[in-house]
Task: structure prediction
Amino acid sequence: MRSLLGHNYSLDHASLRRSLVHLGDDSHFRRLHASLKAGDPLTVGVIGASVAQNGGCLNQPGHRCMFFNGAVPVKLEWAEKPQPHKGFAVRLVELLKAAWPRSHPTLVNAAQDGTPAQNMLPCLFTHLPRNVGLVVVEFGSLALHLRLPAAEAIARKLLVLQPQPVVVFLTIRGLCKRTKAETPETIRYTLGSHWEVPYRRLNLGPTDLPIG
Result:
């Protein structure tokens, strides 16, 4: 990372040693595993911003996530020409289908580009069904605009659903193209022919939230 970007954005060893590690229990995962083994239907939900949209979807015509279903050529930053690409959510569901075909896992990508948690919170279940068994939450790509209490509130809303879903916080170290102007919250550096600005890193996990 340092050689490519000119700066190491990972935590130093001293900070890592001072950090608290709490893995929590695996009861939610054990319940999900038992449900899959029994052949119960599973709905996988995805919420978040643009990175979550890039996770892809399979049956949502008109949504940008359909460009990452593995069947549509899409222009990728690292590719010379457009090519089909499967997003992480599509690949996750394919793995679940291969391992537990009787559960017929389905995918609902409710992410919205440029939308932090506080904007999504009032209408959380407008697009995300309440019968989700596994929810991937990604708000790191909007970390500069994220209000942390809203992320906690979304986790609480999800964890009061019955049956209780597994909630997975996915943190992406965001990089976006910006103008050359610096702001107090950003650091500017040159990457190839573009100006890139890293978002502040957001590290959230289920055990970071004071949920009883």
Notes: Strands lie at 43-48, 69-74, 83-86, 106-109, 134-138, 166-169, 175-177, 189-191, 194-198. The two ends are 37 Å apart (CA to CA).
